[in-house]
């Protein structure tokens, strides 16, 4: 325990209206880690962040900071700073006044603070903006001021609540790189909240996928992407094919009406499972190839997506999504093949696909 | 043709609005007591006005009550608006707001009656205190009404951001929230002040013997019939109001002029 | 972080100055003052005494009164005299509102019409009298219309023998229109100001003549302003009571005057409370009806966060 920077112990949160935002969250965050809470709105990621920041008190559970409980500490006594969703810059102050707010509150030496402000502006590439009113800044610039305002306090942890949500796509890409650079340069632990899986996978050291107030999976971006623990994670992380199937025995699974070789074991015999196939892992072969045990289907549609073709293949009653650089004519009969190591077997979960996730959340 | 019609209509409306006031002011300079016949120019009634102890006391009461009621209601209403804004339970907040707005929706006479009953039930002697309390009471919702929109325009995380950066809740309020809602607080104060000095109905119900404000004095004088002194008082009030309005609106007018000037070349 | 303390004074004010007074009005409205009930008894020594219900005995008949529940106040309101009074108040308020609308609508249209100069100046001139105490505004008309007022003096100087009696219902309505006209113009103006003139151009482009454009575009667009203006004129008109005293020379008492009387001359608070309740119900019902009629208001409510 002592070596982790922050430990969340069995956090539960029930709001006044009876809404259960967190149902027992356990998590630890290490020094210098870039950890991302990922999930759809209403999954509890923002609530978790706000509890760490001190803006909410959990209904039960504890937050340990270097081994000590800080759950009763108000935000202004925590050495943790936050970049808010819409930045929450102080509109009546200029850029420099905003950034020096924290040091001023601690009554630090004015001249030293002024120097630090310039350093911070340089770090976020905003040199020369110190006298500007924050109201005249663009979204991206406001974002940088918000980061500088937090970082000048040398926090141990920086909390970022969907900080790129309000930016347009191009700026968002740019800021992703920028944020990662700032994190590496400053060596500060980042706790990042987003619903954008791509953002999570590109920047993070660790991704925590959440759903309905519970953690679904914790792992490196590679783990999360390649070895999703259940159908929800697989679906949320990227476009994928998810099928109900049966584990016949170790390394043998039935789905799409055929029996496949796979690499997973330890599920037992004749156990219902979910199978995930990434679209780029599915290979189509002409029907004439005559491969034993490969399901046969009909190409429904073919779309050119720039880098690859996206094809939908009807196999029995299921549709298989395929990404390939090699196009097939719609109507063509094809065989669907997957390498055993690309078949991801998961325990059956209650997750039903389609748009069952409510978009309404506590936001 | 259309333009002529518009102009003459507006002129008639202006005549309707201002003829009585202008005549009132003109006759305040009448030397004679008769209000119909011009007896020569004189400042006699203004001198009388300055000598009238009742009016001067009423004026003082009006100003003292106006300023104190505005100050007290601004504090209570301003803090209340912030409290309401922070209130999580939507139902409670809505209920409190609706209840607070009731005096504004309700007619003044009902408010006056209900306050009178309150003081009677509390065995309070009607007078300066009850008058002041009533003015505070009916000004509060207007203050809330002018502060709340400013709060709603704020980034909801502003106070949290300040605390995040090490400000105690009190400091966060003083340094971040207050400066941003100040225009709303100020206009709430002004509104409360004007409502208070203009109020008649509620004052009439909640004041006691011997304590009057300007409105009540005007009423009792007007009921006794026409008095040139009242004309003089009207003229003074009109000029004061006009001056204040011009001062307050001066920045606006300048801006508007600039705007129109810019529009002309197009 | 969230301090409940901020709400404390506000909450106290809500309870003490709104809830309790309102409760008191209701309480007074549904009670009447009656002498304490007692029975006459004969004491052992043969003298007559008076016994209250709680058993206390006194030598004299009790002079205290007590409030008891009764709907008598409301029964009294149903009396023809009061019904006529109520009817007159509603009628005068209605006529005032209609006149204000008829005068105010063209004013707002002219003010917001394309290329109208001095718009801000004229708007300020219309609002300006509102900042003057309404008693003085009413007094200004009184000094014109009185039997010995300016107009009559002028007429008599021109050879008329007897003054015309202006004061009465007509003068009361005039006074109300004069006082409340700005309340009608303001909401109308603020709505019409937002009418996009390109919409009118588009209508003309699509073949609508100015009259049709008015009926199809300007009028529907200005409806919320019309409704708000009606509320802002009608509500104070129904309960106005001083204007009728100054300009009606006591001949046209309105509901407000009678309520005021109950607390001064008549000293019957219970009846006054009942009448206040009636006025309150009328006003709130009227506002509810207006709110329902306003399509925009309903739409707003759905998206309103508060």
Helix content of chain A: 10-25%
Derived structural class of chain A:
alpha+beta
Question: At the third CATH level, what is the topology name of the largest domain in chain A?
Answer: Rossmann fold
CATH topology title of the largest domain in chain B: MetI-like fold
Domains of chain B (count):
2
The helix-strand sequence of chain B is: HHHHHHHHHHH
Q: Looking at the chains present, what oligomeric state does this protein adopt? A: heterotrimer
Would you summarize the structure shown here?
By secondary structure, chain A is of the alpha+beta class.
Question: If you had to describe this structure to a student in words, what would you say it looks like?
Answer:
The complex is a heterotrimer of chains A (363), B (266) and C (306). Chain A has helices at 45-53, 95-99, 101-105, 110-123, 139-151, 169-186, 197-203, 221-226, 231-237; strands at 6-14, 20-29, 34-38, 60-65, 68-69, 80-83, 157-161, 189-194, 206-211, 214-219, 241-249, 252-255, 258-261, 271-277, 282-286, 296-304, 309-315, 318-324, 333-338, 344-347. Chain A has 363 residues and is an alpha+beta fold. Chain A has 2 domains: 6-226, P-loop containing nucleotide triphosphate hydrolases (Rossmann fold, 3-Layer(aba) Sandwich); 231-347, Nucleic acid-binding proteins (OB fold (Dihydrolipoamide Acetyltransferase, E2P)), CATH 2.40.50.140. In chain A, helix 4 packs across helix 5 (139-151). Chain A is elongated, with a radius of gyration of 24 Å. Residues 257-266 of chain B have low confidence and may be disordered. By secondary structure, chain B is mainly alpha-helical. Chain B folds into 2 domains: 2-45; 52-226, Orthogonal Bundle (MetI-like fold). Chain B has 11 helices and no strands. The two termini of chain B are 25 Å apart. Chain B has helices at 2-27, 44-51, 53-86, 90-105, 108-121, 128-153, 158-164, 169-198, 201-206, 214-223, 228-263. Chain C has 2 domains: 36-66; 74-303, MetI-like (MetI-like fold, Orthogonal Bundle), CATH 1.10.3720.10. Helix content of chain C is 66%, strand content 7%. Chain C is built from 13 helices and 5 strands. Chain C has helices at 7-29, 72-77, 80-112, 119-127, 134-145, 150-157, 169-192, 197-205, 210-239, 242-247, 255-263, 269-293, 295-303; strands spanning 31-35, 38-42, 48-52, 57-58, 65-69. Chain C has a 3-stranded antiparallel beta sheet with strand order 2-3-4, with no helix packed on it. A two-stranded antiparallel sheet of chain C has the order 1-5. In chain C, helix 1 (7-29) packs across helix 12 (269-293). The longest helix of chain C is centred in the first third of the chain and has 33 residues, at 80-112. At the B-C interface, helix 1, helix 3, helix 4, helix 5 and helix 6 of B face helix 1, helix 3, helix 4, helix 5 and helix 6 of C.
